[in-house]
Hints:
Layout: E1 3-6, E2 12-15, H1 27-38, H2 41-51, H3 60-67, H4 73-90, H5 117-148, H6 155-165, H7 168-186
Antiparallel strand pairs: 1-2
Amino acid sequence: xxxxxxxxxxxxxxxxxxxxxxxxxxxxxxxxxxxxxxxxxxxxxxxxxxxxxxxxxxxxxxxxxxxxxxxxxxxxxxxxxxxxxxxxxxxxxxxxxxxxxxxxxxxxxxxxxxxxxxxxxxxxxxxxxxxxxxxxxxxxxxxxxxxxxxxxxxxxxxxxxxxxxxxxxxxxxxxxxxxxxxxxxxxxxxx
Length: 191
């Protein structure tokens, strides 16, 4: 059985009976989780526009290569990649919400069962390390090298692309911070 709980905003929700001993996520962690989800939105929108053939500044052989498949499988690839990134980022919310402690009932075979903390912590920390490494690499010259390619977007198009992808640099650290808080609340709590 679950009991009715009133959260800080005064909204009632059902608390999972299987995880009553886990304290709620602090406000900073809830905000960081929401921010992590939002980091993928600008690049996803840019990528989808690109996938549908909106001119984003590529030129030469690169433009010709992409144009062969847009619309087509290139469009499908851009939409699918954007949806995948947003879905993975959305999972960060599970680290601060009740469904990160007890699987929602509608999930076949797992619904209503308590989430084992390491089943969430290990992939989240691994993702955080990978994303932070990629973001650091981009900041330390990888992005500049890509933009230096002759067929890459330049001028305003390069600025727009950079601004669309820049928030991704924060995804890894945000995910890492939220994951460490989840670990603290689920594994290292006082018993």
